[in-house]
Amino acid sequence: GIDPSHNQPMGSWSNEQIGASVKENVMLTWAPSKMKNNLPIITHGEGVYLWDSNGKKYLDWTSQAVCTNGGHTVSENIKSAVAEQLDRTPFVYGGMAMCEVRARLSNIISSVLPEGLTGCAFPSSGSEANEAAITMARRYTGKTKIINWYRSYHGGTTNSLEATGDFRRWYIQPPPGFVKAHNPNPYFFEFAGATEEEKTEMSLLMLEEQILYEGADHVACIMLESIPGAAGVLTLPEGYMQGVRALCDKYGILLHLDEVMVGFGRTGNMWGFQHYDGVVPDIVTSAKGLSSSITPISMVAVSDKMMEFFEENPMGWGSTFQAHPVAMAAAYANIKEMLSNDVIGHVQEMAPIFEAHMKECASSHPSIKQYRAAGLFGALDIVSPDGTQPHHFNAPRTEATAAYAKAFNEVGLIGLFRPPVIHIAPPLIINEAEIKEGFEKQHQALDVLDKALGY
Ligand code: PMP
To answer: What pLDDT, in 10s, does the model give residues 391-421?
Structure first.
């Protein structure tokens, strides 16, 4: 029997008790809820590892949802920063009162952004940050249309989900004003036979054509991920983002770069857009790595000009928990620690080692067509035995991919898998030996996939 007592200390419920309550009372959101019954029950973590209630150890191979950038051990500094804020006061409503941690966090973020970007707001999730940014772009420009890529992920709330290319096909009544552009990697991840320069040129010509047909006077913003992450780490052809910036300038359109996944060091730079020389967006959103996901917090930063506008005009978006002091305390301590430990320098050091392993996965397994990597942000593309590569969203979850997913956990990895893309994005603090260990396990799981696909 299940003992419904809630007086027992955390950690004392048996697997059966936890499982029974999960079955009865818990709901999943992105997947059919019954899938919850197959998920491991995680008891604790340390460094890049997690343990489940059967004592099984997993290497966190995609930093959960590419967000536990600092791993699973919380430093004494971060713990005491959170405890200190709890002691002062857990909460003041951000529209009613200021506090020191908010001033400090805004200041440190402005100091790591390129000049001309400031004015931080702090919602609680990446989706909300994008929701706020969409509203800001519309209010600032007085225009409505937002251009996004098909292969993208911007969030699960009304507008951020419609900005997302992928799941919008599920919408029953989509909100208006979103225009979809093709990525410069539209299908099979390339324009067949085109050089980098040709891919860039063709993509930009198509984008300009779209702007003209939509009417530049109606387009508020081009909103893109600096490197599309959930869509498969779609690194961009040379010169593309500079071209988008130039189109925005030419037509009086804002450029919003979504750094929710890549911000705070994931790709070996503080910001993903720093891979594109000279590109400074008008709006930046981020989340995940901001607090290493110790607390739920996101950010929106804007250009000086937009900041001036919002000094006089309300943004028209808000939530009770935005600028939550405890969430900000963890983020502030996390950023300071990232900087003092030179986490970005470490990612740069690990990047070539990581990439060499990625390359080996692609070359030694017939089920893998190719890899992409930037810093500690990588993806492998599964290819079907008939040589075709399915579209991202309609890739069949076949017996082969199910066998792979099972093997992946059995060998001791836990991570995101969205066929045909295998994501690899370990915590940024991972060391060389742990990277090697992860890829040894990855090879074992890929052996199962090769076999299951009949190679
Ligand atoms: N933008 C990007 C680029 C993301 O990767 C995500 C989450 N995967 C989001 C926005 C949404 O963030 P959240 O899940 O925190 O709402």
So the answer is: 555 555 678 889 999 999 999 999 999 888 9
Scanning the structure block, which residue is given the tokens 């808000």? Answer: 318
Residue 261 near residue 250 (C-beta atoms within 8 A): no
Alpha helices in 67-223 (DSSP H): 76-88, 100-112, 126-141, 158-163, 196-214
pLDDT digits (tens, 9 = 90+) for 143-193: 999 999 999 999 999 999 999 987 777 767 789 999 999 999 866 556 778
Using alpha carbons, select from 265, 292, 193, 183 the residue that is nearest to residue 231. 183
Cβ neighbours of residue 157 closer than 8 Å, sequence gap 6 or more: 127, 128, 130, 131
Q: Supply the CATH classification number for the domain 76-340.
A: 3.40.640.10
- Ligand 1, residue 262: give the atom nearest the CA: 3
pLDDT tens string 96-141: 999 999 999 999 999 999 999 998 999 999 999 999 999 999 999 9
So what's the ipTM on this one?
0.99
pLDDT of residue 189: 53
Domain with residues 15-73+343-452, CATH architecture: Alpha-Beta Complex (3.90)
d(C-alpha 98, C-alpha 95), whole Å: 8
Q: What is the residue with the minimal CA distance to atom 5 of ligand 1?
A: 261
Distance CA 381, CA 371 (A): 6
Report residue 69 as tokens. Answer: 């950038």
Contact 126, 152 (CB under 8 A): no
The residue count of the chain comes to 455
pTM passes above 0.90: yes
Which of 261, 266, 267, 290 to mutate to test ligand 1, by most ligand atoms within 8 A of the CB atom?
Answer: 261
Residue with tokens 């997947």: 31
Please give the torsion angle defined by the CA atoms of residues 365, 369, 374 and 379, in that order, rounded to the nearest 10 degrees: -80
> What is d(CA 441, CA 63) in angstroms, rounded to the nearest whole number?
16
**What is the C-alpha separation between 141 and 34, in angstroms, rounded?**
45
Distance 125 CA to ligand 1 centre (A): 7
AA identity, residue 428: L
H helix intervals, 256-342: 304-312, 325-340
Q: Is the CB of 260 under 6 A from ligand 1?
A: yes
Residue 254, classed as helix, strand or coil, is strand
- The DSSP output letter for 290 is G
Which pLDDT tens digit goes with each residue over 255-279?
999 999 999 999 999 999 999 999 9
Q: Where are the domains of the chain?
A: 15-73+343-452, 76-340
